[in-house]
Amino acid sequence: MSGDDTKSAGPLDGRPTEVSFADLGLRSELLEVLGDLGYEEPTPIQREAVPPILAGRDLLGQAATGTGKTAAFALPVLQRLGPAGSRSRPTALVLVPTRELAVQVSEAVHRYGRSLGARVLPIYGGQPIGRQLQALHRGVDVVVATPGRALDHIRRETLVLDDLEVVVLDEADEMLDMGFAEELDAILESTPASRQTVLFSATLPARIAGIARRHLRDPVRIQIARTSAAPGEGPLVRQSAYLVQRAHKPAALGRVLDLEAPTAAIVFCRTRNEVDQLTGTLNGRGYRAEALHGGMNQEQRDRVMARLRNGTAELLVATDVAARGLDIDHLSHVVNYDVPSAADAYVHRIGRVGRAGRQGVAITLAEPREHRLLKNIEQVTKQRITVEKVPTVADLVARRLDLTRADLREAILEDDLERFRVVVETLSDEFDLVQVAMAAVKLAHEAGGVPDDDQDIPDVELRSPPPAAAGRTSGAGGKQARRAAQGPMTRLFIGAGRKAGIRPQDLVGAIANESRLSGRQIGAIEIQDRFSLVEVPEDAADEVVAALRASTVKGKRQTVRRERGDTG
Ligand code: AMP
């Protein structure tokens, strides 16, 4: 497999080379779209893969999700499309292992190809075949399909591959793991012999070599460089990652920043657009964040840097390109809002903290599908990245209660409470002392500010590896596995929600008061208008239901039961 022509994406000295998308030879329509999407420069895999694919070569690439491999094959495929209207049958077929990926990849290809009027169709099992037939009949340029459904259509002759120019096998190792080997052979055999074939795979086991031997012609081989940090060079950095779905990233980042309380941090994003959006969101949440990207002129950049240096801004939200060459010496945290597309970019980014013997913190927000990139980074840096759980509303409530408790303890020890004695004594004629104290604590607590977001961020599990690959994710997934070992959770339905003024802390309070559970054992909380859902450990669920039924939440008896459809 390792021929002399194997190219390494990423220079060996770990410093990024500056190659633009225009240097890769892409047509102007595509360059324009990339600019609109806020992409500032090609990722290593794009730098290496685009030119040979454009030149018509077959390609065998080792790249995981998150490296930018979709654009690496989509851009050259789109470059081939003739003028809209001149095309009827598919030019390209992209095969992917799952329906999720079929949808994702076809959305990406559609996005990159919008100025060319590219017609992209995802086809996968489980979707009504009628809709697929209509779309195929109208004409499609790029079909993104799972192997089973693709073969169905080929056999029915509803997918005609006579004009096909390119076949892409995306995540080929996953397709093999899922048992699609025969389908892949059959599909490839029904495509024109003149076609170009591109194969991407996160790993390159012998079975991939077999497919490559049978179906690729003299392929260019590309591998993401396994640059290692020089020994002793590793910065003093605590490295954590949080697994979170894209939609929940802004909220998750807010929570993590609340807990970490950085003095100054740089938050790296992939694109210019993401930088602008996230800066807006963070400012809306009360942080002082500044954007820095390649679209800004020198004067604007200088202004931003001055605000960061003099402490007017605490967060700098930047792309790699913009942050290159910046020298900021008082950073406490580096945050990767996305996993960087290559390990050397990660090493570069976190090199900005933990300098001069000070301890720095590197935090990475990763989508579950990017876990492999995290593993890769761990291997390259030879340092552990601990996967942590995004703080839940219950965690924040518990932490705020801790802070209130600490404040109260301090107030008691300060011993200047005499002037309040009369208030307590008069109230104690009427109420129990504990009740008086609880009311006072409540006021103190609420004066400290209550959480402004009450929706929990769903805990994500790693996509379970196929049996053949079991164990591959153990590093990044260790934390998740430990959580699972704590036992299954069950969701409870409570018949009151936002309209009844229910807040997460009411539910945490009621459950912690009425059952043996502590706040930390309570999982995700979801408050809807008319009801709420709370996750509790399965083995305590009946006890919690009984206890809550026998008591009140927000002063009222509420319907409490296991969520319907929850068979646990
Ligand atoms: P992929 O590995 O293809 O799943 O891509 C991972 C993510 O990176 C996607 O969200 C892309 O939109 C984004 N992306 C791909 N190429 C670039 C680039 N050159 N610059 C910035 N973002 C990119």
Automatic annotation (TrEMBL):
<dbReference type="GO" id="GO:0003724">
    <property type="term" value="F:RNA helicase activity"/>
</dbReference>
<dbReference type="Pfam" id="PF25399">
    <property type="entry name" value="DeaD_dimer"/>
</dbReference>
<dbReference type="Pfam" id="PF00271">
    <property type="entry name" value="Helicase_C"/>
</dbReference>
<dbReference type="InterPro" id="IPR027417">
    <property type="entry name" value="P-loop_NTPase"/>
</dbReference>
<dbReference type="InterPro" id="IPR050079">
    <property type="entry name" value="DEAD_box_RNA_helicase"/>
</dbReference>
<feature type="domain" description="Helicase C-terminal">
    <location>
        <begin position="252"/>
        <end position="397"/>
    </location>
</feature>
<dbReference type="InterPro" id="IPR014001">
    <property type="entry name" value="Helicase_ATP-bd"/>
</dbReference>
<protein>
    <recommendedName>
        <fullName>RNA helicase</fullName>
        <ecNumber>3.6.4.13</ecNumber>
    </recommendedName>
</protein>
<keyword id="KW-0547">Nucleotide-binding</keyword>
<dbReference type="InterPro" id="IPR011545">
    <property type="entry name" value="DEAD/DEAH_box_helicase_dom"/>
</dbReference>
<keyword id="KW-0963">Cytoplasm</keyword>
<feature type="domain" description="Helicase ATP-binding">
    <location>
        <begin position="50"/>
        <end position="222"/>
    </location>
</feature>
<dbReference type="GO" id="GO:0016787">
    <property type="term" value="F:hydrolase activity"/>
</dbReference>
<dbReference type="InterPro" id="IPR005580">
    <property type="entry name" value="DbpA/CsdA_RNA-bd_dom"/>
</dbReference>
<dbReference type="GO" id="GO:0003723">
    <property type="term" value="F:RNA binding"/>
</dbReference>
<keyword id="KW-0347">Helicase</keyword>
<feature type="short sequence motif" description="Q motif">
    <location>
        <begin position="19"/>
        <end position="47"/>
    </location>
</feature>
<dbReference type="Pfam" id="PF03880">
    <property type="entry name" value="DbpA"/>
</dbReference>
<dbReference type="Pfam" id="PF00270">
    <property type="entry name" value="DEAD"/>
</dbReference>
<dbReference type="GO" id="GO:0005524">
    <property type="term" value="F:ATP binding"/>
</dbReference>
<dbReference type="InterPro" id="IPR057325">
    <property type="entry name" value="DeaD_dimer"/>
</dbReference>
<dbReference type="GO" id="GO:0005829">
    <property type="term" value="C:cytosol"/>
</dbReference>
<dbReference type="InterPro" id="IPR001650">
    <property type="entry name" value="Helicase_C-like"/>
</dbReference>
<comment type="similarity">
    <text>Belongs to the DEAD box helicase family.</text>
</comment>
<feature type="region of interest" description="Disordered">
    <location>
        <begin position="447"/>
        <end position="486"/>
    </location>
</feature>
<keyword id="KW-0346">Stress response</keyword>
<keyword id="KW-0378">Hydrolase</keyword>
<dbReference type="InterPro" id="IPR012677">
    <property type="entry name" value="Nucleotide-bd_a/b_plait_sf"/>
</dbReference>
<dbReference type="InterPro" id="IPR014014">
    <property type="entry name" value="RNA_helicase_DEAD_Q_motif"/>
</dbReference>
<dbReference type="InterPro" id="IPR044742">
    <property type="entry name" value="DEAD/DEAH_RhlB"/>
</dbReference>
<feature type="domain" description="DEAD-box RNA helicase Q">
    <location>
        <begin position="19"/>
        <end position="47"/>
    </location>
</feature>
<keyword id="KW-0067">ATP-binding</keyword>
<dbReference type="InterPro" id="IPR000629">
    <property type="entry name" value="RNA-helicase_DEAD-box_CS"/>
</dbReference>
